[in-house]
């Protein structure tokens, strides 16, 4: 207990605020080359040909990599351990682009300026396929070749408690919430530097990632390099919020380093990061709750339709994590859950700070507000009737919630917000006004 309750400075805070911290984009190695990526210009199709002649003719260009001269091995951006069962559907460079921003080729050059200039000289001929931008479009059969197993990348159906409990005397409340996608917009964009140690044929990857062992596993398997010859150096991170726990730029940089046998640097600009990495998923959440007349929840049914984007990634844990959020704050003793992650021709979705908590909470709170309105119960009171109390157990895991203090938080919020005064003012306003009402 020597450190509990005391304040200690963050070890790298001074370096960051003074500009002395070194990020991966600041790394400069001898004889280092630079990478620029050619991204798919269409949402779905097949690459018929790639003409990189003019790019290779540009002075300072070292090499151009594409699907036809790079490893054919596949990987999953979310596979962090060998024992994980995950479909391997991605390639370093694809000849079957699934979204605008899917990497198709890369230029390695003496400078970043030359590399970016050369990328614009690459010409790609496509056969375009039908595409779907929403989960509903994908499920309608608009696309049939985005994946070998169809558009649904993961589905989870779970029941906790009694799904057949009698709810005849209950009031049924259904709310549907559209959750919009968001990009993390970390100050530091996605970036990576790779070096090769020729003394022992090992690869050194400098990356501001959230899982050094996950990247090592991926690089080792993808490029068939023994684990002990892959070293991951986690550099100072300029923000992630979940965006850098999947391996997106690292495979490209390693492929380029192995090709040219030189250190390489890849730094995405803001547009490239937004188009080609990951974002929070768009989704439709439908929640049906069954309330007793006095405002207690008897059963909850949840249907989540999640737009996963072009690749499976973390589809299974995404919808599973969403389910876990439906039994932490409120006493949902009987839950029927259906979650589906659907592949579409949009950038891949993934972890976002407070992963699925905000999406679930938004759906639940909208449902509670609607229930309070229909039942004629104060919105605060209906929450107090159903909130979990400290020491109660999570119905899904059986683990005690210990000092959850949900009730105390609601009461404190009620006090600080001056709920009773505001509610009274609203009621008086609505009595006076005929055409305008406050909600």
TrEMBL record:
<keyword id="KW-0560">Oxidoreductase</keyword>
<dbReference type="InterPro" id="IPR000674">
    <property type="entry name" value="Ald_Oxase/Xan_DH_a/b"/>
</dbReference>
<dbReference type="InterPro" id="IPR037165">
    <property type="entry name" value="AldOxase/xan_DH_Mopterin-bd_sf"/>
</dbReference>
<dbReference type="InterPro" id="IPR008274">
    <property type="entry name" value="AldOxase/xan_DH_MoCoBD1"/>
</dbReference>
<dbReference type="Pfam" id="PF02738">
    <property type="entry name" value="MoCoBD_1"/>
</dbReference>
<feature type="domain" description="Aldehyde oxidase/xanthine dehydrogenase a/b hammerhead">
    <location>
        <begin position="18"/>
        <end position="130"/>
    </location>
</feature>
<protein>
    <submittedName>
        <fullName>Aldehyde oxidAse and xanthine dehydrogenase, a/b hammerhead domain protein</fullName>
    </submittedName>
</protein>
<dbReference type="InterPro" id="IPR036856">
    <property type="entry name" value="Ald_Oxase/Xan_DH_a/b_sf"/>
</dbReference>
<dbReference type="Pfam" id="PF01315">
    <property type="entry name" value="Ald_Xan_dh_C"/>
</dbReference>
<dbReference type="GO" id="GO:0005506">
    <property type="term" value="F:iron ion binding"/>
</dbReference>
<dbReference type="GO" id="GO:0016491">
    <property type="term" value="F:oxidoreductase activity"/>
</dbReference>
<keyword id="KW-0500">Molybdenum</keyword>
<dbReference type="InterPro" id="IPR016208">
    <property type="entry name" value="Ald_Oxase/xanthine_DH-like"/>
</dbReference>
């Amino acid at each position: 207990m020597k450190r509990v309750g005391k304040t200690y400075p963050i070890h790298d805070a001074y370096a960051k605020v003074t500009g002395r911290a070194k990020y991966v984009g600041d790394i400069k190695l001898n004889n280092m080359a630079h990478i620029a990526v050619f991204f798919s210009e269409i949402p779905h199709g097949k690459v018929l040909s790639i003409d990189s002649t003019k790019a290779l003719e540009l002075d300072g260009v070292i090499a151009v990599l594409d699907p036809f001269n790079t490893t054919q091995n596949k990987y999953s951006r979310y596979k962090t351990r060998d024992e994980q069962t995950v479909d391997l559907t991605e390639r370093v460079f694809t000849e079957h682009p699934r979204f605008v921003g899917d990497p198709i080729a890369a230029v390695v050059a003496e400078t970043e300026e030359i590399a970016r200039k050369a990328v614009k000289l690459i010409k790609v001929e496509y056969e375009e396929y039908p595409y779907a931008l929403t989960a509903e479009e994908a499920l309608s059969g608009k696309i049939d070749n985005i994946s070998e197993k169809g558009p649904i990348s993961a589905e989870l159906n779970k029941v906790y408690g009694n799904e057949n409990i009698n709810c005849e005397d209950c009031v049924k409340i259904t709310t549907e919430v559209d959750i919009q996608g968001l990009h993390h917009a970390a100050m530091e964009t996605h970036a990576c530097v790779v070096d090769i140690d020729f003394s022992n044929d090992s690869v050194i990857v400098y990356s501001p990632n959230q899982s050094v062992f996950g990247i090592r596993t991926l690089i080792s398997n993808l490029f068939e390099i023994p684990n002990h010859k892959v070293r991951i150096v986690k550099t100072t991170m300029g923000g992630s919020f979940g965006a850098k726990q999947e391996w997106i730029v690292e495979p490209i940089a390693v492929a380029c380093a192995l090709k040219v046998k030189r250190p390489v640097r890849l730094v995405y600009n803001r547009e490239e990061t937004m188009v080609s990495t990951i974002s929070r998923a768009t989704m439709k959440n439908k929640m049906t709750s069954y309330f007793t007349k006095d405002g207690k929840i008897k059963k909850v049914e949840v249907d989540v339709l999640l737009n996963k984007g072009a690749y499976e990634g973390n589809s299974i844990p995404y919808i599973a994590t969403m389910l876990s959020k439906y039994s932490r704050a409120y006493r949902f003793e009987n839950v029927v859950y259906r979650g589906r992650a659907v592949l579409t021709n949009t950038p891949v979705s993934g972890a976002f700070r407070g992963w699925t908590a905000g999406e679930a909470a938004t759906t639940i709170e909208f449902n509670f507000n609607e229930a309070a309105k229909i039942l004629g119960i104060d919105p605060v009171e209906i929450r107090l009737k159903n909130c979990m109390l400290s020491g109660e157990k999570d119905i899904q895991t059986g683990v005690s919630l210990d000092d959850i203090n949900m009730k105390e938080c609601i009461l404190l919020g009620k006090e600080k917000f001056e709920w009773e005064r505001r509610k009274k003012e609203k009621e008086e306003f609505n009595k006076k006004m005929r055409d305008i009402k406050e909600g």
